[in-house]
Amino acid sequence: MTPTNRTYRRGLQALALAALLCLVVVTVLSQVAAALAEASERDVTYRYFDEALSPFQAEASLVMWRVPVTPLDRPFGPAEERLVGLALTRAWSTHAVALETGAPLGLSDYFAGVALERATLSLNVPGARMVMLDQTARPVFFHADGSLLQVETEALIARFHLDEAGTLDGFAITRDTTLTTLRNDATGWRIISHERQNAEDMARGASGADVFPAAGLNYYPSNTSWSRFWPEFDAGIVAEDFDRIVALGANSVRVFLHRDDFLDPEHGPAALADLQTLLDLAGEAGLSVVPTLFDMRGGYGSVTWANDMVYLDSVMPVLAASDHVTYVDLKNEPDLDMDHHGVGHVEAWARTMLAAARGIAPDLAYTIGWSHPSAAGVMADTLDLITYHDYGPVEDSAAAFAAVRELAGDRPVHVTEIGSTSFSLLAGRFPSSPEAQARRLGARLDALAESDGLFVWTLNDFPDPDPVAVGHSPWVIGLQGQFGLFTSTGAPKPAADAVARAFSAFLSSAQGDLQ
Amino acid sequence: MMKTHALILSAICLAAPAWTQTLASDAFGVFDAGSDAARAEWSGHSAPIVAPGALAGDGTFVSPGGAETVLIYFGQKSLSQGSDTALIAALVLDRHGNLVADGTDVSLVAADGRQSASSLHGIASRPVAAGEALGLHHAWAETADGGASRQSPRVSYRVVPALSEQVARLARPVGPLSTEDVASFDAEYAGDAGMAEFLDGVAAQIVLAHRSGAHSLVPAQLIGGRLHARLLTREVFGRAEAQLHMPFATSAPIALDIAPIRAGGPLRVAAMSLPDIVATRLSLGAFTTGAGHLLHDGSHLRVAVTDAAGERYEAQTWSLDGVADVTLPSVALPFAVEVHTPAGRQTATVTRTEDAQ
C-alpha cells in the first residue's frame, strides 16, 4: 500500500469517526431535551370529573337501564336514568380511585350514611382494589316525592389484591347482583346503602380452540403506521399489501387495534367498518388475522377500565363473527408497562380484560404478546397459547424458546415479533445494511424453527415513523423506519427472500408434523 | 430439646399471620376475613379471593339482624284537603347498618291512621290520604322487630284547602272609586262555611268590563286571608262590571262606578300674532286634572274658535307635556275659544295677542 493510499484511508476513517461522534452528540442532545420536556410536565389533581375528563368521558354514564317489573310510586324516566346513571358511574369510579390513592377524596360527593362509612373503611385494606366494569340497573322503589330510590343492579366487577411488593396475590372477576339505595340530596343522588346479593364467577379458562401453525407479518402500510392507520385506512393499499404478504409464503398477518380509534364517538363507527373490511380482505387473500387489542392504550388507571369494556363490546363481536381470526392478542408488550404502572396492577388489568373478552367471544383463543421470553410465564395459567417477542441476541434465541416451550406444556408457542433493521448511516454498513438484515433475520428464523408460529416485524419500511410510537430521536427514527422487508417504494429487500425461504420450510415442516 | 421446640413453635406462631391472610370479597371490595370481624358483619354475599389461577371456594351470605334504626321519608309535605295523597316510607336498618330482612313488620303512622306494611329490601311504605282535617299533622314509623320498639324521627306535614274549593265574592265598593287614585278591592270567602278558608298565595284576576266595551285586567293575590288587588283609576271612568276570576271559580259580577277626571283649573290660552301669514297661533294649556296631573301625552283635544267676524274654525289635536298649539287663519280678535278634553269642556276668550318674535 502506497503512503498516499494509507493517508487517504486514514483520512476517511477520521471523517467516519467525526461523523459518528456528531451523530452521537445529536442523539444524546435530543434525548436529553425529551427527558427535560417530560420532567417539566406536572401532575395535576382534579376535584371533579368534568374538570379532569373530556366532555365525552365526563358525561358518559355506563349504566344500562331495564324497565321496572313492579309499578313505581313515581315515574322513572330518561332524565332520571341519566342523572342516576351518572351518579352510579361516578360513585364507583371515585371509589376505585380512592382505593388506589388511599385517600377518601370525593367519596362524600357520591356516598352518604352507612355506604359512606363502608366505602371509607374499605380504603383501610392496603392493596385492595375494586373496579366496576359495567352496570345494568332496574329501579325497584322510587318514592313519590323523588327523595329515595332503590335499584337492583347486575354489575361486572374486578376485585384484586396487591401484596407489599405490588404483586398480584388475589384476583376475582364476578358478575354481582346488588341492591343499591340512593337518596336525592341537594348536591345530587348519593348512595346510602349498597349490598351484594349474589356473585357469579366470570373467570374462564382457555377455550381449547385450535391454533394452527402460523407464518406471518406484523403489518402497517408504509405511509400510515401506528396512530395513522385507522384514521387513514385505505382498503386498496391494504389489499395490495396483503397480496405481498401472501407472495412471501405467509399465512397470517398481525394487526393492531388502537383503543382510542374505536372509542372515538365520531370516528369509531368508521373504524369498526374498516376492521370488518380488513378481515374480509384477509380472508380473500387467504390470510388468518391476529388482532392485537388495546394498542397505544395510555395508562392503566382503574377509572378507565370501564371504557375498555366499551371498546371490547365494540370490537369483539366483529372479531368473533369473522372466520379469519386465528387468535386474539390481548395487549402488545404489557410487561414493558409493569415498571411504571406496577406488576400486579398491569396483570390484574390483563386478567380482567381477558375475562371480559372471553365473556363476549368465548370460542376464540387468546394470548398476550410479551416483549421478552422472560415474561412468558405471566398469566400462562390462563392463555390458550404463549406468545412473545425476540429482539435479543440471536445466539440466545433457541435456549429462550426452549424455556418457554417447557412452561407452555402442550400449548402452542408463537414468536410474534422478530425483526432486524436495514438502517445504514455510515458507508452502507453501520449500524446495519439490507444484507445484514437478511442474515440476522435468517439466523433468527433458523433458531426458532421449532416454534409453532413466527411473525416478522414488519412488512414495509416507514419513511415517516409515527413519533407517538417511536419518539423523536433521529437515531431511533432511523432504526425503526427500516425494519421492513420492502422499502417505502415497494421494492423487496434481500430479507424478503430470506423470509420467504424460511416460511416455506417452516410451513412445510409444520404441515408434515400435523400429518 | 424442649426449649428448641418451643422456640420453633413460637417462630411459627409469630410468622403465622404473614401467611394466613384470608382475603375475601364483598360489596365494597376486598378485606381480610380473618381479622376484620366488623366488616364480616356487613350483610350480603362474600366470597374468598384466591391467587390468580387457583380455585375459589364457595361464597357465604350474611343475613341482617333485627331492626335498630328506622329512617323516615315522607312526601309531599303539603297536601290538598280531600283526595290528595303523600307517601310514607321507612328505611329500616340493623345495628350494623344492614337493610333488615324482607317481611319485617313496620307500623306507619299519620293523620289518617296507623297501618302496617312489610318491608321489601329494607323499605316499608304506604300512601297517606290527606283527609278533611286542615292544619299541621305528624307522621312516623315504628317497628318492634328485634325485640325492643324502634321509632323513626317525627315528620310534619300540612293539609291545606283544596284549590278547587277557593270561591270568593267581590265586595261592592261604597260610592264611586275616586279618579286618578289606586283603588283596592275586597273579597270574602264564599265556599262552604267552616270547611275551608282562603289559601295563601292563590293567584286571581279581576276583570272590569266598561260600558265603552273596553276591559281592564287587575292582577290579584290572596294573602293572609285578604284579597290584594290594586287598580289605578285613570283613563277608565264610568260604570263597569267587575268579576273576580279564581283558578276554579268566578265571582258574580258587581257594578261599580269610577269617577271621571275633572279639569284642574280654567282654560289658559296664549295668542301670538303671525302678520306675515295673517294668522294667529293659539297655545292652549297646560291642561291639568283635578288631582294636579298633566293630561297624558296624546290626550285628544277638539278646539273650536269663533272670531270677531263670526267665522268659526274647528281643529282636532292632542296634548304633549300638557299643552297643545293650533294655528288660526284669522286675526280678528277677540276669539271665543272652546276646548273639549278628557276632563270635559272648557272655554276662554282671547282679547289680545303677543307680537311674533
Features:
heterodimer, A: 515 residues, alpha/beta, eight-stranded parallel beta sheet, five-stranded mixed beta sheet, B: 357 residues, mainly beta, six-stranded mixed beta sheet, six-stranded antiparallel beta sheet, 1 helix, 5% helix, elongated
How would you write the strand order of the largest sheet of chain A? 8-7-6-15-12-11-10-9
Q: What is the overall shape of chain B?
A: elongated
Question: Can you count the helices of chain B?
Answer: 1
- The rounded distance between the terminal residues' Cα atoms of chain B is 141 Å
Class computed from helices, strands and strand pairing of chain B:
mainly beta
Which range does the strand content of chain B fall in?
over 45%
Largest interface: A-B, 50 and 43 residues
What sequence of helices (H) and strands (E) makes up the elements of chain B?
Answer: HEEEEEEEEEEEEEEEEEEEEEEEEEEEE
Number of strands of chain A: 15
Q: Average pLDDT of chain A, to the nearest integer?
A: 90
Describe this structure in words.
- Chain A is of the alpha/beta class and 515 residues long.
- Chain A has helices spanning 3-40, 49-52, 55-58, 78-101, 107-110, 113-121, 235-247, 259-263, 268-285, 305-321, 338-341, 343-360, 397-408, 434-447, 467-470, 474-480, 494-514, and strands spanning 63-65, 128-142, 148-162, 168-185, 188-201, 214-218, 252-258, 288-295, 328-332, 366-370, 386-389, 413-418, 424-426, 430-431, 453-456.
- Chain A has an 8-stranded parallel sheet. Chain A has a 5-stranded mixed sheet with strand order 1-2-3-4-5. In chain A, strands 13-14 form a two-stranded antiparallel sheet.
- In chain A, helix 9 (268-285) packs parallel to helix 10 (305-321) and helix 10 (305-321) packs across helix 12.
- Chain A is elongated.
- The mean pLDDT of chain A is 90.
- By secondary structure, chain B is mainly beta.
- Helices cover 5% and strands 48% of the residues of chain B.
- Chain B contains 1 helix and 28 strands.
- Chain B has one helix spanning 2-19; strands at residues 23-26, 29-32, 44-48, 60-62, 67-75, 78-80, 82-94, 105-110, 113-118, 123-131, 135-143, 150-151, 155-160, 168-170, 182-184, 187-189, 202-210, 215-223, 226-232, 238-245, 254-258, 269-274, 279-285, 300-306, 312-318, 323-328, 335-341, 344-350.
- In chain B, the strands form 7 sheets. In chain B, strands 6, 8, 9, 11, 12 and 13 form a 6-stranded mixed sheet that branches. In chain B, strands 15-19-18-17-20-21 form a 6-stranded antiparallel sheet, with no helix packed on it.
- In chain B, strand 11 (135-143) and strand 12 form a beta hairpin.
- Chain B is elongated and about 125 Å long.
- The model of chain B is unreliable at 1-20 (pLDDT under 50).
- Classes of the chains: A alpha/beta (515), B mainly beta (357).
- Chains A and B meet through helix 6, strand 2, strand 3, strand 4 and strand 5 of A and strand 1, strand 2, strand 3, strand 5 and strand 7 of B.
